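Table 4 source record.
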Amino acid sequence: MNVNVDAVLDFIVNYVKEPELNYDEDSKMIIIRSFDINKPGTLYSKVQGGVIGGSIISGSLRVGEEIEIRPGKIIEENGEVKCVPFITEIKSLYAESTNLDIALPGGLIGVGTDIDPSECKNDMMVGSVVGKKGILPPVFKKIKIKYNLLEKPVGSDVDSLDEESVVTVNVSSASSVVNIIEITDDYGYLELLKPICANVGEKLSISIKEGKSIRLVGYGNIIEGEDTEIIYE
């Protein structure tokens, strides 16, 4: 539509602060894509591992480095949800068509791994977090949030949430439908149907299902979380 594009660009250039990047921080990358690059009929001996893509938030990634991907596989044992992270070696790094030895924050990065490509096909890894083994954020199965509803949500007249609301929360690229355990006008205690790797304090968005549509209705922060047990194979 090209409406007010000049105003948006002016705001970005003159008012949005450039983030301070610390390459010595712990590595953290948010996955927004994942896929299997092998064509049908590829010989077993020539099959390549799955590829993940996303943005590095902090630190750096290097070819040959061992990384962990959380949550990984979600399993259930005796009624308890547990996570089995993927541990893999970085086989390659790409920025578009440029082959890299090291990747730093900024832009989108493709990471070649030795993970079974069937685990990466069709964006199955979206919402996961990458970093060095053992230092990633916890994986929450329940969270307590402080939230605010939008004054005028587009396409919705929702002015409150209750235990019957069909709610989805998004943290970075991760998304999960939730069961509302307790809810007030300011705070909510939620069970995540899909565990999310996140830190206390991270921002989230709140959407609600109305008919066949999903509407953004609020935002908030994680103030507490109940960890999912992590199992290393």
